[in-house]
């Protein structure tokens, strides 16, 4: 179950299902699976619980739909870079850049995955096998073509993912203790340069 057929609400031109998924994405990102009730999601979407249940089923079904949509959007964002037939070190940088840009544009998706990897909704066990592993495997395969002999490519890919998520959600503390994240252009430029150096080191380029 990745998407649901949309029904346009008379109160909004946005299909009801999209409103539900958008509201659930924000709330699961902010509060986690346990903290985001179906009632709160319905209220945020401007709908009632019966409408939410009719379109997406229970809370577990809604969580799966949100996470699957997030994974699909990530994959779509990276597709163009992953099509390289003869990958180069520059492609490795482009892929890291595209992932960084995607997470900066969609910090709520980075938050969803961080919560997920910190044991959110542990009883939902199919996501990683069906959505995460195939995408990571494609990235690892691409990186294998450019990596040096000492590189542990799988761990390199995961290290970049965690590093990007940490910057987008946690940021870097400045001299005054303020957090500088992706919406701070100087901080983003510094992080991007650092990310390129990190990729070079991890892949033994």
TrEMBL record:
Residues 37-56 bind DNA. InterPro entries: DNA-bd_HTH_TetR-type_CS, Homeodomain-like_sf, HTH-type_TetR-like_transc_reg, HTH_TetR, Tet_transcr_reg_TetR-rel_C_sf. Keywords: DNA-binding, Transcription, Transcription regulation. This is TetR/AcrR family transcriptional regulator. Pfam families: TetR_N. PANTHER family: HTH-TYPE TRANSCRIPTIONAL REGULATOR BETI, HTH-TYPE TRANSCRIPTIONAL REGULATOR RUTR. The keyword Transcription applies. The keyword DNA-binding applies. Residues 14-74 form the HTH tetR-type domain.
């Amino acid at each position: 179950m990745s998407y649901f057929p949309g029904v346009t609400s008379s109160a909004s031109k946005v299909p009801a299902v999209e409103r539900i998924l958008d509201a659930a994405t924000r709330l699961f990102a902010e509060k986690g699976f346990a903290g985001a009730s179906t009632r709160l999601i319905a209220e945020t979407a401007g709908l009632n619980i019966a409408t939410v249940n009719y379109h997406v089923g229970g809370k577990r079904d809604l969580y799966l739909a949100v996470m699957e949509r997030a994974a699909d959007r990530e994959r779509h964002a990276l597709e163009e870079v992953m099509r390289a037939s003869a990958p180069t070190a520059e492609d490795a940088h482009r892929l890291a850049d595209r992932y960084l840009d995607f997470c900066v544009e969609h910090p709520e998706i980075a938050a969803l995955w961080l919560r997920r990897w910190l044991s959110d909704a542990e009883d939902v066990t199919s996501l990683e096998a069906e959505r995460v592993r195939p995408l990571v495997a494609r990235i690892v395969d691409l990186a294998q073509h450019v990596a040096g002999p000492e590189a542990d490519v799988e761990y390199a890919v995961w290290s970049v993912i965690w590093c990007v998520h940490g910057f987008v959600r946690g940021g870097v503390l400045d001299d005054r203790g303020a957090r500088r994240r992706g919406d701070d252009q100087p901080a983003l430029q510094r992080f991007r340069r650092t990310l390129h150096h990190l990729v070079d080191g991890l892949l033994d380029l």
